[in-house]
């Protein structure tokens, strides 16, 4: 629930609370040596959080962000780690930005070679390194 | 584009390293006898300097043994080929040993430093997680006291080091463009520059309009084939995650295959904890733990330490004994002092149009030395380099990498798309001046996995460096505004910016104020040399690796030339 408030479904993007992403979130938390930050947030959540209206839930989270800055930053880190390494999310990103939904290796990326003509202005400049004698 | 796994494993260098078919060997310490046969030269550390020295000395006929506490890295397992590469980058491939939590590493006590130390322990040392930017020092960098009245002059000058820059660059291959007006003339580059990308093209045009210097960065990346068994860059981006094509010039693919061919022996999983000396005070070898915690001993006629600017003073401090209670080679009291980083600030520009931020080598595309030299009009001495960086993946973008905060909740994705692939970051790399109070000591409680005291770093950012960084931030605003950036975001100081570790066993002519002489030979012990960034008298404002390698080759030449004298030691 909380993850989908942080990264909601919108404009073709899945919510971060989807099962596969949530599973990755839990794995990311368990790999963290400082897992207690999530526990700190859970402890600080009001008892009526689950039953509250969405607007109030967001208010609660904003309060948590203000009062538990470091722990909330950890929550966001785990959420974004899980979300932006998820294959479904990366396919949406590919469709919207052209960023290939695959790891950088082994294919790499095409780039235009350096244009030597772009140095024309700089090559007109006299050497300006500082002489030492 | 690029090679597959089978093809890259077929490269000559890879074959040498993986099956031990070369003249030399890579062996695991745990499989050896308790006391190893004496070697002419023992090198502690297999990184940029140790690899270069091993090749040079083994090629000259010395028997060379190198002890490395880490292991050989198999690039077939590079995280950059995995879907969760940006997560692995935060953990087991994090450049901070404190984040990796590997037994091959040692932790660094760094609560008293605003800059955290980054390094890697393995064959190739920190070049494994390095982005290969390879600029030379300027001639003025060796004459800081004479020119600007601060710090000290080096005991050697640019001209003296120049042949070793040339030799090193021939060995490793430097991509770039000759004729940079910020430098003296030098031999032509071996290979063409890497692509600079759309973001750098915009910035370069802006700098031309401002009348400021820019130039494609010198870099140890194969834009074309260079060196045996090495392939060509495919612009995948995260060089610090290892390059299976061996296009990246880390020392495990440049010098080590050649050093092994020349007969050097490389022992991994060997954590040296003491340099031993005899009753005359001369070095006799080293004692080390293997991976199982068993103590072993390597005897040597001459010992060279290349364990980085933190590891080297740590080892010499750990080697304290009754004859030298303050640490080995520390009669000056300078060992561990004058720790220098390159403090780094950053400005990230967000452009309205995509600039291919995720493509190309992480740490460099172009750089500027416009503000490198001292200018009496400014409120600081010495100067800084501007360096345009890139390779931002989606996770790092979401996490606010390089200072561009994201929002959570409704509208998150819209903001994400405004930023992702739309950024260019200017890193301001400042010269750090030596301060004896910035130092490496041994921590009183933190230890590594063998129970050895961890290094503790105590560091304060100097006002001069702060003013430099502020000046650089303002000039970066000028550049990006001229380039038409839509937003600018500043990072005053990158905490995780301690890539360059320098100055902690400085060289000098005066034994009372320095640890080694002009050749890297310690003043106290004539058969003990230091060859890493610890040697630096001052830090310059450029990346140190090729200067470290040039110094290592020069020290090796000195050892070769004085072979007979050393035999008498």
Question: Count of helices of chain A?
Answer: 7
Largest interface: A-B, 54 and 75 residues
Q: Uncertain runs of chain A with pLDDT below 50, 5 residues or more?
A: none
Oligomer: heterodimer
> Largest sheet of chain A, described in full?
none
Which bin fits the share of residues in helices of chain A?
40-55%
Question: How far apart are the first and last residues' alpha carbons of chain B, in Å?
Answer: 55 Å
Helical stretch tally of chain B: 15
Overall pLDDT score of chain A? 95
Structural class of chain B: alpha/beta
CATH topology of chain B: FAD/NAD(P)-binding domain
| Low-confidence residue ranges of chain B | 1-22
Give the CATH H-level superfamily of chain B: FAD/NAD(P)-binding domain
Number of domains of chain A: 1
Q: List how many beta strands of chain A DSSP finds.
A: 0
The geometry of chain B reads as: globular
Q: What is the string of helix and strand elements of chain A?
A: HHHHHHH
Strand content of chain B: 15-25%
CA radius of gyration of chain A: 23 Å
Q: What report would you give on this structure?
A:
The complex is a heterodimer of chains A (133) and B (569). Chain A is mostly helical. Chain A has one domain. In chain A, 53% of the residues lie in helices and 0% in strands. Chain A contains 7 helices and no strands. In chain A, helix 2 (19-30) crosses helix 5 (69-83). With 569 residues, chain B is of the alpha/beta class. Chain B has one domain (5-568): FAD/NAD(P)-binding domain, CATH 3.50.50.60. Chain B has 15 helices and 17 strands. The termini of chain B are far apart. The relative contact order of chain B is 0.19. At the A-B interface, helix 5, helix 6 and helix 7 of A face helix 4, helix 8, strand 5, helix 11 and helix 12 of B.
Brief overview:
The complex is a heterodimer of chains A (133) and B (569). With 133 residues, chain A is mostly helical. Chain A has 7 helices and no strands.
Write the layout of secondary structure elements.
The complex is a heterodimer of chains A (133) and B (569).
Chain A: H1 2-6, H2 19-30, H3 36-44, H4 54-67, H5 69-83, H6 87-97, H7 120-123
Chain B: H1 5-9, H2 12-19, E1 25-28, E2 35-44, H3 48-59, E3 64-67, H4 85-88, H5 97-100, E4 109-112, H6 144-148, H7 158-172, H8 197-210, E5 215-216, H9 255-261, E6 265-268, E7 271-277, E8 283-289, E9 295-305, H10 308-318, E10 344-350, E11 366-368, E12 384-389, H11 394-398, H12 412-419, E13 423-430, E14 439-447, E15 453-458, H13 463-482, E16 487-491, E17 528-530, H14 545-561, H15 563-568
Parallel strand pairs in B: 1-6, 2-3, 2-9, 3-6, 4-15, 9-17
Antiparallel strand pairs in B: 5-11, 7-8, 8-9, 10-13, 10-16, 11-12, 12-13, 14-15
């Amino acid at each position: 629930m909380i993850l989908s408030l942080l990264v909601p479904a919108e404009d073709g993007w899945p919510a971060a609370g989807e099962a596969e992403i949530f599973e990755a979130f839990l794995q990311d938390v368990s790999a963290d040596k400082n897992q207690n930050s999530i526990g700190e947030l859970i402890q600080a959540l009001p008892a009526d959080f689950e039953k509250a209206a969405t607007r109030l839930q967001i208010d609660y989270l904003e309060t948590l962000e203000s009062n538990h800055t470091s722990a909330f930053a950890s929550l966001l880190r785990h959420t974004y780690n899980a979300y932006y390494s998820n294959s479904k999310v990366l396919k949406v990103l590919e469709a919207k930005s052209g960023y290939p939904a695959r790891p950088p290796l082994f294919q790499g990326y095409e780039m235009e070679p350096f244009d030597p003509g772009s140095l024309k202005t700089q090559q007109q400049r006299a050497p300006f390194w500082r002489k030492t004698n | 584009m690029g090679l597959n796994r089978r093809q890259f494993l077929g490269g000559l260098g890879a074959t040498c390293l993986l099956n031990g078919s070369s003249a030399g060997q890579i062996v695991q310490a745990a499989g050896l006898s308790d006391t190893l046969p004496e070697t002419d030269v023992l090198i502690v550390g297999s990184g940029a300097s140790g690899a270069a020295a091993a090749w040079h000395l083994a090629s000259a006929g010395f028997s060379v043994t190198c002890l490395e506490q880490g292991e050989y890295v198999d690039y077939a397992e590079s995280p950059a080929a995995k879907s969760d590469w940006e997560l692995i980058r935060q953990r087991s491939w994090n450049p901070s040993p404190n984040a990796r939590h590997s037994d091959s590493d040692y932790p660094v006590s760094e609560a008293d430093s605003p800059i955290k130390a980054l390094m890697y322990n393995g064959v190739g040392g920190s070049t494994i997680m390095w982005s290969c930017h390879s600029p030379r020092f300027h001639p003025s960098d060796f004459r800081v006291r004479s020119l600007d009245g601060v710090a000290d002059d080096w005991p050697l000058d640019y001209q003296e080091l120049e042949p070793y820059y040339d030799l090193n660059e021939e060995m490793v291959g430097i991509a770039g463009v000759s004729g940079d007006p910020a430098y003296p003339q030098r031999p032509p580059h071996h290979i063409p520059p890497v692509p600079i990308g759309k973001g750098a093209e915009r910035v370069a045009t802006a700098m031309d309009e401002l009348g400021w210097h820019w130039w494609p960065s010198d870099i140890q990346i194969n834009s074309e084939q260079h060196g045996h068994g090495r392939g060509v860059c495919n612009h995948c981006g995260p060089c610090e995650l290892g390059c299976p094509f061996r296009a990246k010039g880390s020392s495990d693919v440049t010098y080590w295959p050649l050093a092994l061919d020349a007969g050097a022996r490389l022992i991994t999983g060997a954590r040296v904890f003491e340099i031993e000396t005899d009753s005359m005070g001369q070095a006799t070898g080293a004692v080390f733990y293997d991976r199982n915690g068993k103590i072993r001993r390597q005897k040597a006629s001459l010992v060279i330490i290349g364990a980085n600017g933190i590891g080297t003073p740590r080892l010499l401090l750990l080697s304290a004994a009754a004859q030298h209670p303050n640490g080995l080679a520390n009669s000056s009291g300078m060992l561990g002092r004058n720790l220098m980083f390159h403090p780094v600030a950053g400005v990230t520009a967000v452009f309205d149009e995509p600039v291919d931020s995720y493509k190309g080598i992480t740490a460099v595309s172009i750089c500027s030395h416009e503000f490198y030299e001292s200018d009496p009009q400014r409120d600081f001495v010495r100067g800084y380099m501007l360096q345009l960086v890139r390779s931002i993946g989606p996770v790092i973008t979401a996490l606010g990498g390089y200072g561009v905060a994201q929002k959570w909740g409704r509208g998150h994705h819209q903001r994400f798309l405004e930023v992702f692939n739309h950024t260019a970051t200017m890193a301001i790399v400042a010269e750090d001046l030596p301060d004896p109070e910035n130092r490496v000591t041994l921590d009183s409680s933190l230890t590594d996995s063998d129970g050895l005291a961890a290094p503790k770093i105590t560091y304060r950012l100097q006002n001069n460096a702060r003013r430099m960084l502020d000046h650089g931030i303002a000039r970066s605003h000028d550049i990006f505004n001229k380039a038409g950036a839509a937003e600018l975001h500043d990072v005053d100081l990158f905490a995780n910016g301690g890539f360059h570790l320098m100055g902690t066993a400085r060289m000098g002519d005066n034994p009372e104020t320095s640890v080694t002489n002009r050749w890297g030979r310690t003043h106290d012990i004539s058969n003990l040399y230091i060859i890493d960034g610890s040697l630096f008298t001052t830090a310059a404002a450029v990346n140190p690796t090729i200067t470290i390698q040039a110094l290592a080759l020069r020290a090796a030449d000195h050892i070769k030339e004085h072979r007979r004298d050393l035999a008498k030691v």
